[in-house]
Write a structure and sequence with these properties.
Blueprint (H helix, E strand, L loop, with lengths): L10 H16 L5 E2 L11 E13 L4 E13 L7 H17 L8 E4 L2 E13 L5 E13 L24
Parallel strand pairs: 1-2
Antiparallel strand pairs: 2-3, 3-6, 4-5, 5-6
Helix pairs in contact: 1-2
Length: 167
């Protein structure tokens, strides 16, 4: 197995990393929901959604995975302030860039790994444009850590023969 392959990263680890990012950016009191709640949620809050977009085997022990990540921020519409959306995005961008050793890309720590965040963007969505959506993509190689059994062929003997040529 290649040294660059780390412990497999599952969806739970990714969700925990995203929730950890939101907690570090917005404090322990940030309300984070993992599934859409149609009633009873308390604003302001975040909903997180993680979708596997691609899962391609690239070798016997490596899989290329692509996840689309969506974070929805809900404000109380009675107190809506457009500038808060931009403050939310700014905090996330700064936190993600602070995790980059060179400070030149967005990095999401996931367990012992540091995954590059691609295509970070935001928009307003919903019937009344009442949801602020932040989206990005995570692309990474994942190792299986499943040992591959090889049949032992026993001892090998290498014989060489040197032929002299007469010129």
């Amino acid at each position: 197995m290649s040294d660059s392959i780390q412990e497999p990263t599952d969806e739970l680890m990714l969700k925990q990393a995203i929730n950890n990012m939101l907690t570090k950016c917005f404090g322990e009191d940030a309300r984070i929901y993992g599934h859409e709640v149609t009633q009873g949620y308390i604003e302001p809050c975040f909903f997180t959604d993680l979708r596997l977009a691609s899962d391609e085997q690239s070798s016997a022990t490596t899989t290329l995975k692509v996840y689309n990540v969506y974070i929805y921020f809900f404000q109380n519409l009675d107190e809506y302030d457009e500038s808060i959306d931009y403050k939310v995005m700014k905090k996330l961008r700064l936190w993600l860039i602070d995790n980059s050793p060179a400070k030149n890309c967005y990095i999401l720590p996931v367990g012992q790994r540091r995954l590059t965040v691609h295509s970070l963007s935001n928009t307003r969505i919903g019937e009344n444009y009442d949801r602020f959506e932040i989206s990005f993509t995570l692309r990474f190689n994942d190792g299986s850590l499943i040992p591959i059994d090889y049949e032992d062929v026993g001892d090998l003997e290498l014989k060489t023969e040197i032929k002299e040529s007469i010129d």
